[in-house]
Amino acid sequence: MIQELIREALEARSRAYAPYSRFQVGAALRCEGVVHSGCNVENAAYPLGTCAEAGAIASMVRAGGRRIEEIVVVGGDAPCTPCGGCRQKLREFGLPDLRVHMISPKGDVLLTRTLAELLPDAFGPDHLG
Ligand SMILES: O=c1ccn([C@H]2C[C@H](O)[C@@H](CO)O2)c(=O)[nH]1
Ligand SMILES: [Zn+2]
């Protein structure tokens, strides 16, 4: 189960475009049994760079998916915890109990957190009723 996500996250990371930070990130999520992945894509206009999580979410939405069931993120040797913006993007399609696994470049799980732990008292789609 998580093994496929780990494999795909590592594969995505190998395609990252990160010439400025040199920090390559990959993410892979499962939605209705289908795995979607993404990598960070930086830009010479620095603020326009996009995160790996955003790429995986865009792939899921393009395929018609709306619910993230589990996600794996891989960056460097320390757990690559999603940035604040990505936590909010995950909230759009993930329930508070969504498991976010952070793995090492070797594929070992370093840290697992729920989305609620990463983004407590989140503002989400429910607020707009
Ligand atoms: O969870 C994260 C954290 C960082 N990055 C990217 C953004 C930027 O390209 C590089 C350095 O911050 O890593 C991600 O893609 N996901
Ligand atoms: Zn991010």
Short account of what is shown:
This enzyme scavenges exogenous and endogenous cytidine and 2'-deoxycytidine for UMP synthesis. The chain is of the alpha+beta class and 129 residues long. The chain has one domain (2-122): Cytidine Deaminase, domain 2 (3-Layer(aba) Sandwich).
Strand content: 15-25%
Tally of extended strands?
5
What is the arithmetic mean of pLDDT?
A: 98
Largest sheet data:
5 strands, mixed
List bound small molecules. Answer: 2'-deoxyuridine, zinc ion
**Element string (H = helix, E = strand):** HEEHEHEEH
Spatial sequence of strands, sheet with the most strands: 2-1-3-4-5
Report the CATH architecture.
Answer: 3-Layer(aba) Sandwich
Q: How many domains, as an integer?
A: 1
**Structural class computed from helices and strand pairing:** alpha+beta
Name the helicity range: 25-40%
Terminal-residue CA separation: 34 Å
CATH topology, which one?
Cytidine Deaminase, domain 2
CATH-assigned homologous superfamily: Cytidine Deaminase, domain 2
CATH domain class: Alpha Beta
The rough form would be described as: globular
Low-confidence stretches: none
Q: What's the total helix number?
A: 4
Q: Compute the gyration radius: what is it?
A: 14 Å
Write the layout of secondary structure elements.
Blueprint: H1 2-13, E1 26-31, E2 34-39, H2 52-62, E3 70-74, H3 84-93, E4 99-103, E5 109-114, H4 115-118
Parallel strand pairs: 3-4
Antiparallel strand pairs: 1-2, 1-3, 4-5
The structure holds 2'-deoxyuridine and zinc ion.
Residues 51, 53, 82-83, 85-86 line the site of zinc ion (ZN).
